Amino acid sequence: MQQTNNLRWDLDIIFPGGSHSADFSTYLQELESELTDLADIVSQYNPDKESVDTKRLRILVNNLEKVNKKFREASAFISCLSAQNVKDEQASLLVSKRSELKAKFEAIQTSFNQKLVQIPEDTWQNARNQDDLNDLEFVLNEFREQAKGLLPIEQEALINDLAVDGYHAWDQMYQAIVGKMEVRLKEEETTKSYSIGQASNKLANPNRDFRKHVFNQLNRAWKTNEHLFSQTLNHLAGFRLQKYTHRNWDDVLREPLELNRMKKKTLDAMWTAINNNKHHFVTYLNKKAERLDLKKLSIYDINAPINREVKTFSYQEGADFIIKHFHRFSPKMAAFARMAFDNRWIEAEDRPDKRPGGFCTSFPESGQTRIFMTYSGTSSNIATLAHELGHAYHQHVMNDVNGLNQRYAMNVAETASTFAEMIVADASVTYAQSTDEKKGLLEDKIQRSIAFFMNIHARFLFEKRFYEERKQGMVSVNRLNKLMVDAQKEAYCDVLEEYDENFWASKLHFHMTGVPFYNFPYTFGYLFSLGIYAIAQKSDDFEDEYIKLLRDTGRMEVEDLAYKHLQVDLTATAFWEDAIQLCINDVYEYLSI
After folding, report:
1. Looking at the domain 18-166, which fold is it?
2. Would you put residue 401 in left (φ > 0), alpha (ψ -120 to 50) or beta?
3. Which residues form the Peptidase M3A/M3B catalytic domain (predicted)?
4. Rounded distance, CA 147 to CA 108, Å?
5. For the chain, what is the mean pLDDT?
């Protein structure tokens, strides 16, 4: 592999000139024109009650796919621009423009879906199995079923239009505030200012006094703005709940479950299995407290390294390690990762003004992806990089799939990423050069399990309870704090001394408008990928079978996907219990050494 010294991504190859790109401006104008044309085509489509012209319908969905890809391409570019520099005002304007275009596209999609509902059931059953539509049978049927739960087209269109400034704007307001926040930290003899993302990375410091200082300073920053964040969260939730009320949807989980194409029985089975096995991880947390000479851990101690000396790796070393161990399971995935590094598809530089966190976004027209993170050289950073490369590979193997069949849900999206992360985490443990290093790497793995089983569970519990209370009116800052601490106490089995009452403010996912309940799909993906990983270790032809599973993720319910490719029942606890056992094994291997 060529030397990977450039930690900045290359966006110019897609649209040169950044947020002021003339090419991108032209592209947006073309997208707007194509949206107008598509709206006309959909409005003129009136399906016959007796029969369906499948060839004509195929032409319509081909246009829908084309515009969908173009919108995703533009959206991805804007996401990259706004993340790489939160102070880029032009990028902020483009985020607003994207919301407008999204509202138009969603209105067209809703109109199309409701046209499908007009087709009588027997006529529809006959039409969707015709050769012209056979490959889109699942997604078209899904469009039709979803439309049955919506309001009349005029009202849904109005909701989409009002959402630009009445819903998505709250997400943008939150990100604008966070982008301007600074955290001042005392380090040795100096005091420095850091962005939220940079300061958060320092919570992994082995020095507890410094770690507590970072936690307190971050909390001070969040508390300074907590009343603003309570407004963004309350109004975002209020808009969503009003929409549910008008649609006669009482269950706040209806939308997230539909979006993730999963049954409530599957979600319940997963959390039941996790709750049945949390005591193993409580044992680990108590042991860690003992090793740190503490009666109880606080929330900022959970991810702290036990070893005072934390090994770091250059970006080149991290890239080489990932490619080497991807190759053991899938030479194709390794070749893809090498190409992503060589072509600068990754933004990893540790610098101010970047958005916190990490993500992967796809450019379906260009056939490319981009990965965003902040790399500071830890084992955890390498795992995160592998995680995002897993996302990118998922899209890569679907590039030749019809765009409407690429709409895979968040829970299965997290499967590919977590599988890639697991390959690297396991390899790190296996090839550790000392007992201390092995302990540290096992800890990284266990901490990920605790994040998925406890931290994510706390987010889920908080969000569910918050939404139920929000139905009765605005929820105060003090009440938000209490709901958050109560959820953390329950999720962590009350094993901690100090919790993070401001987590509702600091966690971006609570304020995002794209997907409600941006939490449980992570845990689903983690455990589902464990099942895939177990099969991969025993299979001789894993690579091709894995690609087949990934290519099906956009055109199946998750229960059907699991049964077809893994022969397992996700609505029963047995699958989840077996997957969790692999994580329990890590705990006891760690305790044994």
Report:
1. Butyryl-CoA Dehydrogenase, subunit A; domain 3 (1.20.140)
2. beta
3. 204-581
4. 12
5. 92
